[in-house]
Amino acid sequence: MIRYDLVCDNAHEFEGWFGSADDFDRQKERSLVNCPTCGSPRVTKRLMAPSVSTARKKEERRHAVMNAHNQEMIGKLRELVTAIKANAEDVGDRFPEEARKVHYGEAEQRGLIGKATAEEARALIEEGVEIAPLPVLPDDKN
Fold it and tell me: Quick count: other Cβ atoms within 10 Å of Cβ 30?
């Protein structure tokens, strides 16, 4: 995971955690990175000093940040995500189209997972189609 210091065009400072530098860029392109204070999608990375990470430092940080309770919660979330994926049809980029078909009774009622842009997700929600993103958990992209 990479932690970035971020700032919006209204000078609100905050941090974000991403699986990779490319992950930040992809999320920003899809308007998924927004200021938690004002909601602005115009967010940029701030200059940061490089952090040299060793295996020992990484393990020390992991133990400092993740107490037993957090580890248990993440484990339960991971189980839930695994169960959802095991019991849903992955329709990939066709998710918005397939979700609408199920919602309007044009296709069999079933669980779906797939991909949608932020704009597509907003449109689905506005139409009353019930959707929710699956969480990306620590270590999923490491």
Answer: 16
